[in-house]
Amino acid sequence: MLISEFCRRTGLARETVRYYVRLGLLQPQEGQKGGRHPYLMFGEADVHSADVIRVGQALGLSLREIGDLREARRKGELPIEDRLAMMKDQLTRLEAKSAELDKLKAYVRAKIAWQEAGERGEEPLLSDFVNATASG
């Protein structure tokens, strides 16, 4: 598929795709057409790579880290034990982020309820939710 279809499939901007190609995160084939600048031909493996990049970024990895990990895996230098340890570490980080979001959601819900009740009583404070969750 050409870059325009790849962008539609992945939701990535054309400039982002070109940047990922320059970094080596995506490795499309070069087509026969295009002269000095051959067309880039993307396949399903590139769609999967785009998903991996998106997940890596969501987990807080930099593009460099994602590239280094993918290269190590391609070379067989990232054994399953290391991959599992990394995934478990990322899960721990995601659970911490989730707990933080739960605190913020509880605070916002309390603030909405307080405002819907005419702002009567004590105004909810974020510190009340952070401290209550941390100690409970």
Structural summary, described in words:
The chain is mainly alpha-helical and 136 residues long. It is built from 6 helices and 2 strands; from the N terminus they run ααββαααα. The protein has a two-stranded antiparallel sheet. The model has no long low-confidence stretch (mean pLDDT 89).
- The largest sheet has its strands arranged as 1-2
Q: Based on CA inertia axes, which overall geometry fits?
A: elongated
| Radius of gyration, taken over Cα atoms and rounded to an integer in Å | 22 Å
Estimated share of beta-strand residues: under 5%
Ends apart, CA distance between termini: 53 Å
Q: In DSSP terms, counting alpha (H) and pi (I) runs of 4 or more, how many helices?
A: 6
| SSE-based structural type | mainly alpha
Fraction of residues in H or I helices = 55-70%
How are the SSEs placed, and which strands pair?
Blueprint: H1 3-10, H2 14-23, E1 29-30, E2 40-41, H3 44-58, H4 63-74, H5 80-116, H6 126-135
Antiparallel strand pairs: 1-2
Helix pairs in contact: 5-6
Provide a short characterization of the protein structure.
By secondary structure, this protein is mainly alpha-helical. It has helices at residues 3-10, 14-23, 44-58, 63-74, 80-116, 126-135; strands spanning 29-30, 40-41. A two-stranded antiparallel sheet has the order 1-2.
